[in-house]
Design a protein that fits this description.
- The complex is a heterodimer of chains A (318) and B (551).
- Chain A has 14 helices and 2 strands.
- With 318 residues, chain A is mostly helical.
- A two-stranded antiparallel ribbon of chain A has the order 1-2.
- In chain A, a hairpin with a 4-residue loop joins strand 1 and strand 2.
- Chain A is globular, with a radius of gyration of 24 Å.
- The model of chain A has no long low-confidence stretch (mean pLDDT 87).
- Chain B is an alpha/beta fold.
- A 6-stranded mixed β-sheet of chain B has the order 6-7-8-3-9-10, sandwiched between helices.
- In chain B, helix 3 packs across helix 4.
- The longest helix of chain B has 18 residues.
- About 1% of the residues of chain B have low confidence.
- Classes of the chains: A mainly alpha (318), B alpha/beta (551).
Amino acid sequence: MGRFAIRRLAGMVAVLFAVSVLTFLVFNVIPSSDPAQRMAGKNSTPQLVAGITEEWGFDESLPQQYLTMMGNIFGGEVISYEGRENVNERIVEGIPATFSLCIGAAVIWMFFGVLFGYLSAVRAGGLLDRVLTVVAIAGISMPAFWLAAIFLNYLTYQFELFPSGGYVELSADPLGWANHLILPWVTLAILYVGFYSRVLRSNMLDAMGEDYVRTARAKGLAERRVMTRHVLRNSLIPIVTLFGLDFGALLGGAILVEAIFNLNGIGQYAYESLRNLDLPPIMAIVLFGAFFVVLFNTLVDIAYAWLDPRIRLGSAAR
Amino acid sequence: MSEPLLAIEGLRVGFRTEGGLVQAVDGVGFDLAAGEVLAIVGESGSGKSVTAQTILGLTRSPNARIEGSVRIAGRELLGASDAELQAVRGNRIAMVFQDPMTSFNPVYRIGDQLVEAIRAHRRGLGRDAARDLAVESLDAVGLPEAHRRAERYPHEFSGGMRQRAMIAMALALEPEVLIADEPTTALDVTVQAQILELLRRLHRERGLATILITHDLGVVAEVADRALVMHEGRIVERGSLDEVFYAPKDPYTRKLLGAVLRLDRAAPLRPARQAEPLLEVAGLVKHFPLKRGGLAIGRGADRVRAVDGVSFSVARGETLGLVGESGSGKSTLSRTLLQLLAPTSGSVRFESREIAGLSRRQMRPLRAEMQMVFQDPYASLNPRKRIGQIVAEPLRLHGRATGAELRRQAEELLERVGLAPEHYDRFPHEFSGGQRQRVGIARALSLRPKLIVADEPVSALDVSIRAQILALLADLQEEFGLTYVFVAHDIGVVRHVADRIAVMHEGRIVEQGPADRVCERPADPYTKSLLAAVPIPDPRESRARRASSAP
């Protein structure tokens, strides 16, 4: 298990390197115009362009340029020429809001996704299953921006139950923190609840036909134990994969929801930067997001090996 | 007279389907006395497995309609509550299933799965005491180092070990009745012999009443006291083994007995073959590198020697039987012969021309000369294509015919293999296993090949269907002068179709020679053990063989 994890982590470093090279190529090499010119953005002056060329080494060889770019990004020296501010600082500032949003939403969607999926699989074909199917399809079909608008209109402006947005520090005011985040959490989670419950339902229905489930019944286990220990346990394995990928991608920026609820997180920063075509922060956020996608991919692999002994021993035993 | 241990009366199980009610079990009744072994014999679809599962209330489809009576020691089980059934399952009546690969949950340790069964019924038993009982039970079925093995996961066990563990789980709570549903069908023949010996020993030592469900009359002759023959949901024959085997009253039983290919009977004489070799194989090797996960870094030592230096030749018009157990390399060899897998080294000569190492493009014209028939008639036909398209595809690909002519040739082929031209527009799922295998044969035949490699062509088929397909293959061989390489695990079948037999074991051919000689006077110890393990569907001979081999 340990060796397996180490191998996977080593693989992750290799993938991250490849991602950074790709990012470098996409932003600085493939477009035909002068990268310094594009980075300077609207405030472009000859002095600024010359300064950028100097700072990013755009007159040097490509490998050197790559190294300089990575040095700048990881050294925390990337400056947005548009907003005249340090990009890394802005990203670090955005982490609490983004992480609060994503982790909270993930807890909600995993809880309800698994609960609804389990209930509709166990009662497949029954009334509860049909109701949950409708709920799930509705959840999948509602676009986040529309749902957010509905929430804001009714729950915030009409009935004044929840604040319209903004982020409150958890350490400063835990209740305010949660109160401000409830609508964004629910908005973000609803799509995934629907999706996960459908996937889990069909996984469980497949698993119910497995021979080992018949064996479990033939042993004289109670139906609930058959469902939880055998059917649900084995059906959760693919859900873990999905979760790792979705969650990793979200940490790189839940752009829409952050922007709507004015959560000053990484997603909102990405949104601002995109609107201003401000390249340095976009580059940094792309790398930041890619890091989490790759990290969670790796964690999923490791979790998989922990959940499914066939993978763990199949590769380590030899 | 006192109540028998298990009494089944007027059992009917029907399934509502779109096409109406399908009566899978249609009025089955029998008793099981303490300490007896009752075999239920039947082909697929006879209702034998549904009967077994219904006894334990495991027929759970909402579309099922179940009538009749199932009583254990006078207590009715049909219609009993979940809690009552749970108290009986695994505790008074235990069950062992066909496929030991899939019957354990892959994510839990074997020992934990036994403990779970034990603690479901002995609530008061502590974790450690339950574990001791589980290990004791694994030990009793002859699992070596049971204490250590209990900590292992199912995929770390071989098929035979898993089936032992399955039996241990069934017997841990000392049930009164054991239902074994095709317990050895998924196993190699030598492993089957061990499991049957285990069942006999457990029966001797514990006097356990057993219902053995099987399609294999050889298995019946080896272990049962009494037999029922099921056909289309009904019991058509019942009696002692001697009655059923030597004085069958029902025509279906007679047909079933007649269709069995016995290893201990010589095949009808076959005409002598021309000596000219069609296929010559010398020093053929196929190794697979082992992937080490993550980045694949080649390491010379880590390889599976699937085929490890094999030499033989097949004469024109001859049938070579290639026999081996799972993992012997016979399937890899058959694919390597046709260059579907590139050999690691060695030579394959077809009509004196070296084909090992030819490129795909160079092989293409030769593909028409050598075709393959696969084991699983369900998986080897594309479910979205019509039967006619499947048969015509090779003709179309090789540009042999187009349009109406293509259709005419395909229809002719269908007719030749015993299907009707009207079947052209149907889909594979509309056909039975035997019919699908006919389609597979028609496809292989379409280009008029010289060589057909048949990889377990009849092992997925029922006994009576098997005989028909083998007869078809023999007819086609006469008519078209075909040469067969017939790959199979069942040496009994191979003896009846092959001129010569080559026995494979661990990637090598350990013995080859004329079929009758190999079967009657085997020289290699592995061939001997393989032959000794084949159950003989003849209770008297089976008893005699056991008596002579008993220590």
